[in-house]
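Go through this one:
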Amino acid sequence: MEGAELQNIKGIGDKLSQKIINELGGEEELNKVINNLDLERLIRIDGISQRKAIEIMNQLIGNPAQKFLKSERAIQLYEEIIEKILIYSNTSYSKNRILLLAPIKDEEIIEDRIDFVMNAKERVSKLDLNELNKLMKNLHEPKIAKANHDASKAILVESLEDIDYLMDLGLNKYYNILTASDSPFFQEELRGYELIFYIYTEGFLDLGDMSNLIMINKDAPIYQLLPEVILDYFRINKDLFERVSKIKEILGEETVLKDINPILEELENYKIKEIDLDEIVNNEKIYIDQELKERIQNVDLEGDEVLDLLNNALPAKIEEIFNGILSKSKETIKLESGIDFDPFIRKYPIEIDDMEMERVKMEILSKSANNYFDKKITAAEQLAAIKEDAEREVEEIIKFDYEYALGSFAYLYNLNRPNFSNEYELNQALHLELCLKENNTIEEIQRIDYRLNESENIALLTGANSGGKTTLLETISQIAILAQMGLPVPAKSAKIRLLDEIYHFSKKRSLDAGAFESFLNVFMPIVTSDSEKLVLLDELEGITELEAAVKIISSFIEMIEESNSFAIIVTHMANELMKYTDIRVDGIEAIGLDENYNLIVDRTPKMNYLAKSTPELIIKRMYNSSSPELKKVYGKILEKF
């Protein structure tokens, strides 16, 4: 696909064409996108929505659906198939791939697709679908964690260049970034933070002994500079990774994802030891005051010792009492807090040194934060080591969802591989709308057999009203479309002719005198083109001129017979048409009413059999379900049959 061709596609001008090529990285990459149906790469381009990307991709690959589906009802049936498959899709990846599934004629590609889907069906059939459906729901790529700014911590660097480097990494979103200052209050400012991360290039800053300082080389991995970058990523995607891990387990595949939760839980369960230093020290103050009072009351002071007290000096006897009591309290405080310090001023009653208490509290906080930071680095290092594998596993499961959707569709609808030949032959076929019902009811649903071949490539289909003629035509359309999409079909076995086009016309059209010209404009080009096609016409006889309609339809039949195409025409004019053309007539006939007055119909057409429409059975059903007044009317009508 050259750039000049790309810009000629509807909805793509020069500007968007160049933007697509530039964003993808050149025309070679564009060709890869087309060959791999990589819709996601188009959607990632700014300004291209999912709908727009699908339109562009369809045009890039030649609009195969538009080439094959040539009538409104055929397009509707195709879209209904897509909607049925989409029910089993859980990701945008698989939805996009499903939306690009289209009927084609390349048998090799079709066979490859069918192989893929049949293998998927086999795999899905062995899985716990109830559990998988819960786990697969709304799968997505891992999210990027939003940074949470923490003003209690800061990063210290040596130069403006270092600031630029760390801002490029996004670290400024987490902490303030400071540069060294000559201010005499700078170190005091640093001590006001719970933690300071000194991310150094040369390490020339002399900051003395600061318990809240952590030094990290600027060239260290990101998880050492800021473990939150890794930890927050895994935290926000914890549920996703846990679900993918369980999916991998169900699929019987190895996974690194099972290691994530234990790492995060160990970190979450790590508790910074809460120390109520005020309570410890206040308890010791009460003890000291009591001990001093009791011990000093029993001390006998001599005259010179009393003079020492008058001169604000403690006598040796009292000094010894203070030393003994305070030494014991210091040991108690160390035992309970883990900190070796003396928080008291020697007076009676004893006083607490508030400045020393604040210093120690900050030291405890910094030490705890330091220990927790080390724990976070260890956890971040472990998670960083598996991050690439974790993302790869999520991508694998997201891509598996395409296989899962197609496999679930094929398995739950009980679809089977079609074979390709020069004819149509359906054995035990079933309309898609009945497939799931068949699985969930004890009521027997009749499957149908039907065939067209090269010598009998067109047939008239006759028979009972509500007998299944429309359903048969739609079943044939569904099977033809599914097969050429490269999907299995709702039949026990099926032979399919690969064709260029399919036309399916429902009962909306009529052949009254005013519609003749419209009919000729629509239907004559179908039979005069060289393409091989399947034409399905459902009751075209809301007419006022029977003789003219018969002559036109019989001419249509003759032209189909002489072509490589196939056709089925549902009609109540079989007797009249047989006068003008030698054509196979098949019939679906009602044989009676059941106990609930429903038609009993053999829905498999009898070949070479002109079936009656059996209107008397319909009237009889109406008779049995009507009021007494209406029964008189229907009874008189029935007498005439």
Notes: The CA atoms of residues 230 and 384 lie 7 Å apart.
